[in-house]
Amino acid sequence: MGSTRLKIWGESEWKVRQDGTGKIQPWRKAHLAVNGNAKDVIGMEVTTVERADAEVFKGLVDQAEGSIERIGCDGAYDTCSADEVAVSLDAR
Fold first, then answer.
1. Based on CB atoms within 10 Å of each CB, which residue in 7, 33, 48, 83 is the most buried?
2. pTM value?
């Protein structure tokens, strides 16, 4: 699992760059759960950058269909709440 930032571009962004008017759109984060074998996206959530990766962990796991044998994540998911989700998977 991981996340990446997305920059939202639209008319307002163009106006700011052209003549300094309008409102700049904020960044967004795309959180992805990927099947490591098939390389398919099996879960996704788009949030504001203020939302921590670990906060969406359970939602990404819940989107996965079938059994989960192993979860690999970066350090942003190394939290007590993510550990609780992983332990609940073991109990299934």
1. 33
2. 0.67
